[in-house]
Amino acid sequence: MLVTGSNYLLKSSVDLSLKYKISKVVIGLTVVSIATSAPELLISISSVLKNSSDIAISNVIGSNIANFGLVLGLALFFSKIKINTKLIYQDWNFLMIVSVIFSLFALTKVEISRIEGIVLFTFLIASLIYIFKNSKDNEVSSNDKYRSNTKLIAMIVISCLMLFFGSEFFVDSSIYFADYFGVSERIIGLTIVAIGTSLPEVVTTLVAVFKKELDISVGNIIGSNIFNILAVIGITSIIKPLKITNKLNLQFDLSIMFVFMLFLFLFYSFSKTKILGRIHGVILLGSFTIYYLVII
């Protein structure tokens, strides 16, 4: 339900956006990122309402790690991607800034409060306004064969319902398995939940790579990570403050998240052509596998 719901939400949202002449770069950083991050949002909200803050927080951190280690790793394994300067010095820098703010909120107190959630959500609104106002990519689809607005909106509503019920089942099952196997909700959140909610990003990015829509693929990964922090953590903590149960484990997980983000910057900095390929994908996938072996 999560994969199918996010897939149809993605298709309908992109069709609706292209129909109104929104550029592909903007779609990748906003519409695609929001659609593919919908499972993380609903699962985190459901988790915190069930008093499982560890799943909500580790879901976001684990998904951000998986987006770079697994999703970008697979994308680079199958295709070469040229990284432009704007992507690093604007979008990647903004991701680093919001990640630092999130880390400060999480590590300096016993909970991420509603006020801090409002701060993160305000950053999201400001960033969306900035993206729409400053996008200079005017490339839009010339295909006018889109479904009617009514059908597109109906598909979006149905997809959201599938995501809602899917997330409820997913969280209940995750909590059950955590108890059954005697492992912490943190581990469940970083592994099963993170991989499960990252499947839309995997599918979307690989499809974008094979269709040569590389602006959407890389923009989706960075945009999704930004959305995970600003919207998922922001909205979830506004609904109910997120309790921090183990700062030591959280510090380790956040450190790994920053390491994977730094990989992209280092790859870009040491590449003369600014084109990343299979060797970079192998490094990301290998590092991701080692991280999972360590935490498990």
Give a short synopsis of this structure:
By secondary structure, the chain is an all-alpha fold. It has helices at 2-19, 24-29, 31-36, 38-49, 53-78, 85-108, 114-134, 149-181, 185-210, 214-239, 247-270, 278-295, and strands at residues 81-82, 111-112, 242-243, 275-276.
Structural summary, described in words:
The protein is 81% helix and 3% strand. With 296 residues, it is mainly α. It has one domain: Up-down Bundle (A middle domain of Talin 1), CATH 1.20.1420.30. The strands form two sheets. A two-stranded antiparallel sheet has the order 1-4. A two-stranded antiparallel ribbon has the order 2-3. 46% of the residues are buried. The mean pLDDT is 83.
